Amino acid sequence: xxxxxxxxxxxxxxxxxxxxxxxxxxxxxxxxxxxxxxxxxxxxxxxxxxxxxxxxxxxxxxxxxxxxxxxxxxxxxxxxxxxxxxxxxxxxxxxxxxxxxxxxxxxxxxxxxxxxxxxxxxxxxxxxxxxxxxxxxxxxxxxxxxxxxxxxxxxxxxxxxxxxxxxxxxxxxxxxxxxxxxxxxxxxxxxxxxxxxxxxxxxxxxxxxxxxxxxxxxxxxxxxxxxxxxxxxxxxxxxxxxxxxxxxxxxxxxxxxxxxxxxxxxxxxxxxxxxxxxxxxxxxxxxxxxxxxxxxxxxxxxxxxxxxxxxxxxxxxxxxxxxxxxxxxxxxxxxxxxxxxxxxxxxxxxxxxxxxxxxxxxxxxxxxxxxxxxxxxxxxxxxxxxxxxxxxxxxxxxxxxxxxxxxxxxxxxxxxxxxxxxxxxxxxxxxxxxxxxxxxxxxxxxxxxxxxxxxxxxxxxxxxxxxxxxxxxx
Length: 474
Fold this sequence. Notes:
This protein is mainly alpha-helical. Helix content is 32%, strand content 3%. The protein has 19 helices and 7 strands. Strand 3 and strand 4 form a beta hairpin. Helix 12 (285-294) crosses helix 18 (435-446) and helix 14 crosses helix 15. The longest helix has 15 residues, at 250-264.
């Protein structure tokens, strides 16, 4: 089968999609203009974004209710390296609270690295890493929201009954039974990803089992955990249907991880949330101007919509491409085709899921590959993707040093055919804003940062974990 570069003619590479144009009612328009003239001009000069444009406030009712005993168990599992193939990396390594629940890197180093965040290094021994993590580690805020139906940058996990198990996932019909939520289903996939937590084939029994079939490793991981006496006791106490540790499966591990993440990183107490709840003084004048731009001229809310600031759809932004990327199974090229890698539909090429924005200030760098180190940079890219792509420099990417990988880090940028496809494939149109307006927009995004939900999480970082393995700390 041929690669995507051989079938480029099959792409519908036209300009970005035009916004839907509704039909016109001349009589209705005249009546509206008459009403408009009767309203004092001062109302329009001083009013913030129209109330109809703003989402209703989030509340606890918008989130799934999780069990706190399960969450307490999940806290320990989240920070415990026992869940990785070589017992050298935890979920928290790439999603650390001190780094906004990410890792602070454009493309991280998973299994085989040492250290945390920007200090993480790639081992240079015979077991050195073979590949960077293809995409930026996303933040974990508000993943327990009831409204969520799709996860991962390319949406390869979603609520669906395609395989009669409640989810469309990389495990397809081999997904374990007993996963209670979308977040629980998500939790088990990094555990079996070679470059994230599983390790390379022949290094450990987890990686070897994954090489056989994706579901073969999960029973091994569950047994690893449940035979530790403290974990075994906690599972019995946290799950009503578990009477003895031997009954614990990967589903209980995943559901505990989900409970912890959902409770720990639920956040809807930002200045903007306070503003939505009626505190008109919660936003500064600059932030209010930015809010008006976000819901108006800048058109941000066309995709970052609703209570979660995401339409959960997929859009092509033309971000500077680099790194190994993720593509279709039969495609040998180093690149990232986005949603198409999951759907196998040409019209989905280079499209990525709209991220949620609460606490976005904390989750740099930005984009599916962490191309921009600042909020201003990613905002400017949205406003003029062509100009920003042309001016983007490789040193803007925060990539841990790995000399043996550097020859392919930016190979896509030198591929004229691939860059031509990127240049013709956009879902955003240029919008002209002044430097002051951009500063106002950034100020509004900073107003989405939580207060107590960020500074006083319910659980925090544990001092130790039952396996006795070290806990990652800054």
